[in-house]
Specification:
single chain; alpha+beta; 5-stranded mixed β-sheet
Length: 173
């Protein structure tokens, strides 16, 4: 029996095909998750919380909401590319603790699926277009979800963007 939480119940209710995987309950990065699941790191996507520059306060209140950047596990967010993608001068990477406060989720369990209807803009790295399905966090540590990319985009009202670059983490494999 797969672990159930609000994310899996929502996917079930919307009849979205997915596979849930139990992973160790400690915080795993995308590279460790890929190794644990024995899948290529390129299909394990991580969710990175991004905040907008304070000078954006001139705009409507909705624009101040942090973003969720969903990127391949062997990449890092390129803040300049992301800012350009969303028409901002600058965006920032908050600390892990700040990301947890912003989302209400623990690092290692932050998921765009767990934050639907919370006002976060979701940008998925364009590399996801090359995969039929990707792995993402299930909204809590210890739960990984494999689902079709099109369903992730539709459910989260995300858009694609060129927002990441390869990291040196790939040398760890």
């Amino acid at each position: 029996m797969s672990p159930a939480n609000n994310v899996t119940r929502m996917l079930d209710a919307k009849k979205v095909p997915y596979t849930a995987f139990e992973t160790p309950s400690e915080k795993l990065g995308a590279v460790e998750t890929a190794q644990f699941l024995n899948v290529p790191v390129e299909v394990v996507y991580k969710t990175v919380v991004i905040t907008r520059a304070q000078e954006s306060n001139k705009t409507s209140a909705g624009r101040k909401k942090p973003l969720l950047a969903v990127i391949p596990g062997n990449h890092v967010v390129d803040l300049k590319l992301l800012a350009n993608e969303i028409g901002e001068k600058k965006v920032h990477l908050p600390t892990e603790k700040e990301a947890e406060q912003i989302t209400g989720l623990r690092a290692g369990g932050i998921s765009p699926l767990a934050l639907i209807n919370k006002g976060f803009q979701v940008i998925v790295d364009e590399s996801a277009r090359t995969h039929g399905s990707i792995h993402i966090s299930g909204g809590q540590r210890g739960l990984n979800i494999l689902l079709p990319v099109d369903d992730l985009i539709s459910l989260t009202q995300a858009r694609y963007g060129r927002i990441s670059i390869p990291s040196n983490q790939t040398t760890l494999l």
